[in-house]
Amino acid sequence: MSFSGPKHYRVESAKSLKDRPSVRASVTSATDTFNANRSDAYSQIDSDLWRDWARDVKSHALTNLDQYLEQAETQLLANGAKVHWADTAHDALRLLEEIVRDHGISTAVKAKSMLSEELGINEHLEDLGVHVRETDLGEYIIQLIGEPPSHIVGPAIHRSLEDCQRLFHEKFGTPLDDGPDALAATAREALREEFLAADLGISGGNFLVAETGTVALIENEGNIRLSTSLPRVHIALVGIEKIVPRLEDVSGFVQLTSRAATGQPIGNFFSLIQGPKRDGDIDGPEEVHVILVDNGRTRLLADDKAWEALRCVRCGACLNICPVYRQTGGHPYGWTYSGPIGAIIAPGMLGIEEAMPLPYASSLCGACVDECPVRIPIPELLLHWREKAVEKGLTSAIESAGIKAYTKAAERPAIFRAAGAMLRHIPLEAGGRALPILSDWVKERSAPKSSKKSFMQQWKEGIE
Ligand code: SF4
């Protein structure tokens, strides 16, 4: 199974709600836990202060991106790493292919990286004849099932324990009642062999430090540490927006990101990668390649409002709290990044035409903005993209005509009163189906009963 594209969102989300109730149950349960843990972790610090700081550091880095990227490149080269620039996904795959061919790579282990999903790394490696193995437990599970991730931090949260028990029973012959610890131990044993045999390790990068040329990685399982230190070649795929100016910035971000993502004060493992193995080092790769990827990010940066979305540290907090995401999980969104963050970066990175209708996959309740560790104004950006969609004529003609008619009527009190009086006599439950502008609304919910009197009449009569 692969992503079907944002344009199928309405159909896929309806299908998920109707045909896959277990997805809703699994996602709700997992996100409830994430939310409770985050709320607890935020309450232990002055989270408002930390989030203001994080917003300012990331905004500063993004508004001086060219300067910091050049500085990072200089430092990485001085550290002995090789630096590559990829404008597009195609460029990144070509660079990967060159490294694979130059080094005679036949097996690769991969740490969790959303950028690698965005670029389609696994499919490309397989086409090149490279055996590639996901090593994050959640990614490992969905690779065995043959699905893409459904969440930035918990790629398999749409799957229940029973799903995993059945999967491991089929693949490894484990007892059907094995608990999470036993299942993890089985995966660990199988993965250990793959780590030892791999020629290439692939990772992402949570942060790239300009001052020192350091790729910083946060994780809980230790698989990133092994993927980046055991194989003879390491490739780090890093989005250009991951830059931070100073090493000391990372110490704040690692704590804030961990709190926002999983509610931990800090992830279990934290790796700072500066380059290949040096003389006297007992482990580490012979070569480290850092591929700096644009793939639509500068296009998003050029938007005078939506650029703020590039501050994202991919913690997943906005997905966990979103009442829309929580119903279906991430697959119906149709591309790598789902939930509120996906809905605001898709139009900038893919183009608004390609991203429709994701900016509308939100109730605009604003819960996401209250949780975001880098204070991205998500609801404002959703409205920004909706405005662009209207300007480009991408919304329903009936809806636009209805809103235009409403605007005209609202500007003329006599017409507004007359139209209101007429509509009050239509029973909305039945009328909603008859009026095209309301038909989608009443499909899934009951329409309110029409009031007998207008708001102004009730106001004058003092009725609450
Ligand atoms: S938009 Fe904010 S809350 Fe959502 S994933 Fe990015 S950093 Fe986290």
Give structural notes:
The structure is a single chain. Helices cover 54% and strands 10% of the residues. Among the domains are: 6-159 and 199-297, NagB/RpiA/CoA transferase-like (Rossmann fold, 3-Layer(aba) Sandwich); 397-461, no CATH class. It is α/β, with parallel strands linked by helices and 464 residues long. The protein is globular and about 85 Å long. It has helices spanning 9-19, 21-43, 47-63, 65-78, 89-102, 114-119, 121-127, 137-145, 161-172, 180-197, 223-229, 247-262, 297-301, 317-321, 325-328, 339-350, 352-355, 367-371, 378-391, 397-410, 413-423, 428-434, 436-443, 455-461, and strands spanning 82-86, 107-110, 131-134, 200-203, 207-209, 214-219, 233-239, 243-244, 269-273, 287-293. The chain contains 24 helices and ten strands. Strand 5 (207-209) and strand 6 (214-219) form a beta hairpin. It has a six-stranded parallel β-sheet, with helices on both faces. It binds iron/sulfur cluster (SF4).
Q: Give the distance, in angstroms, between the N- and C-terminal Cα atoms.
A: 54 Å
Query: Which sheet architecture does the biggest sheet show?
Result: 6 strands, parallel
According to CATH, the homologous superfamily of the domain at 6-159 and 199-297 is: NagB/RpiA/CoA transferase-like
User: Which structural class do the helices and strands define?
Assistant: alpha/beta
Count of discrete alpha- or pi-helical segments spanning 4 or more residues: 24
What is the name of the CATH architecture of the domain at 6-159 and 199-297?
A: 3-Layer(aba) Sandwich
The name of the CATH topology of the domain at 6-159 and 199-297 is: Rossmann fold
- CATH classification class of the domain at 6-159 and 199-297: Alpha Beta
In round numbers, the mean pLDDT is 94
Give me the side-by-side strand order of the main sheet. 1-10-7-4-2-3
Q: Report the C-alpha radius of gyration, rounded.
A: 25 Å
Q: Tell me the helix content.
A: 40-55%
3D shape: globular
Strand content: 5-15%
Report the strand count: 10
Unreliable segments of 5+ consecutive residues = none
